[in-house]
Amino acid sequence: MTVDDPQFAARIQAGEPAALQAVVHAYLGQILRAARAAGLDPQRAEDVTQATFATFIEKAGQFEGRSHVRTWLFGILYKKIAEARRELQREGKMDDIDDVVEQRFKPDGTWVRPPEPADEQFYRTEVNKHIGDCLEVVPIQQRMAFILREVEDLDTDEICKILEVTRTNIGVLLYRARNRLRECLETKGVRG
Amino acid sequence: MLNCKDVTRKIASGEFREVGWRERLSVRFHLLLCRLCRRYAAQLRAIGAATRELCGPPAQDPSTLERLERQILERSRRGAQNPNGTSERQSGNVDPH
Q1: Nearest chain B residue to A19, by CA
Q2: What is the pTM of this model?
Q3: A–B: how many Cβ contacts below 8 A?
Q4: Contact B94, A76 (CB under 8 A)
Q5: Which chain B residue's Cα is nearest to A186?
């Protein structure tokens, strides 16, 4: 039996120590990676990971197995990250990415400021250099949606449950995250 | 007919993955003809790939993972012995759906 089997939910709900430990063991690496990917420094990422599993264990009695245990863990993690980042949030307003994108098109929807051209291989190398910096400018909810899709490879329904938003919202979050990253990279002179 | 703005929106939002075959075909058709949207799509793919590379596989450092696992389990045992005592403020969501 794996931690994702439906029968396992009952053991989690009962707070069976072996079951809880199995969940910790199965997902620790993934949760820690996501905490780091969300922009926390290594120490904070560890703290938030610990706090996530502490909450999971504490609230295990409420787990009904109607969603994947992973979904539940990521949902707890997301709330912890949002709390942790609020303390760290920098001052200063960002450009509204929707307006930035809007200005790239003519009224008829064709490009007026198209993506800058360059060699595809060169673009990839340059993106690798700057992606870390550019992820830092992406607001946390957009960043989480992007990470859960691109890194964790979760489907839209699961991301909706984790971030507690609608399917339409996920589309908006991904659209803004990706455009914000692309614009940031282009500003850094990364041209593809 | 979809224009460039429509096509880039469908690609960036991920809507493209979920629409029916007819609409997906019209996005593909647009990309076939439009060099600029192809470039945009290739850039988004490169950005996704770079993010995956940056994040790497799930954390694997055995000493970190073992230590964290031990700390989590110890903390939960302490919490269970002393439910009203040292347990700190927790915020977590309940099982969604």
Answers
A1: B73
A2: 0.86
A3: 175
A4: no
A5: B43
